[in-house]
Amino acid sequence: MASQESQGQTNPVFKDYLPGSSDLSEQNKPAEPAGLWKQASHTPNLPPGLEYLNQLDQIIIHQQVELLEAILGTETSSKYEIKNHLGQRVYFAVEENGCFDRNLCSPIRSFTIRIADNTGREVITVKRPLRCNSCWFPCFLQELEVQSPPGTIVGYVVQNWDPFLPKFTIQNESKEDVLKIIGPYATCGCFEDVEFEVKALNEMSTIGKISKYWSGFVNNVFTNTANFGIQVPVDLDVRIKAVMIGACFLIDLMFFENSLDGL
Predict the structure, then answer these.
(1) Do 236 and 245 form a contact (C-beta atoms < 8 A)?
(2) N or C: which end of the chain has fewer CB atoms below 10 A?
């Protein structure tokens, strides 16, 4: 597999986001990784690059503002910064797909999101095929695959049919159910955060949440930029934490891709 052969190499898609890039503004340069990053870099039995997730119970995902998209109203490839609770960037993500998919299929478009660490090494790949996004097509609902390292599947996010609530199942690499995600009846939270609860399989106990933060009237109405927070138990398997990051991207595209959905 080409993806497996390229492990450990810097993907050209990340060249403008690496430390030292002349095109990278000061405000977007990655924070110096904390000492904990270096101490955990050789933790055994973890997918390479996911060691830092082992210490996190809160992950912040910040979508970068696309000026061209805001001015012209056209869809451009999404770019995200993934940070710890201190606001330090630990990963960055770039969406790959065609112009046709972005502008014609928008919220249901297929995509590949490549996530790299601060050295430019791709550590997570998120793949989403073109599928339906309607309760009227229960046999062809959303499904997303997460790989880490690229080429090695660590889990899936599967949309569950429900006539009223957004529901998803987090699965491991063997497609065994691990967790549930249940969203609110209305995802258009006006002037407030929108929360998707992470629950045990019995859907009774809540162990975390994915929050879409209200980012202000101008951002939410005139751009598609979004800020998310993921809260999970610190001892959750890092592979499932990686799948949760994929779930966050899926929720963003399904419910908040159109600007007015963020109101």
Answers:
(1) no
(2) N
What DSSP assignment string belongs to 141-201?
--EEEEESSTTSEEEEEEEE--SSS-EEEEEETT--EEEEEE--S----TTS-EEEEEE-T
Burial of 178 (0-12, 13-18, 19+ CB in 10 A): middle
The structure's pTM equals: 0.76
DSSP 96-157: E--HHIIIIIGGG--EEEEEEETTSBEEEEEEE-----STT-TTS--EEEEESSTTSEEEEE
pLDDT tens digits for range 77-87: 778 999 999 99
Beta-bridged to residue 11, according to DSSP, are none
Show the tokens assigned to 242.
Answer: 């990686």
Residue 253: CB partners within 8 Å, gap ≥ 6? 107, 108, 109, 111, 128
Residue with tokens 């109203």: 73
**pLDDT tens per residue, range 228-252:** 999 999 999 999 999 999 999 999 8
112 within 8 A of 97, measured Cβ to Cβ: yes
Element (H, E) at 207: strand 206-213
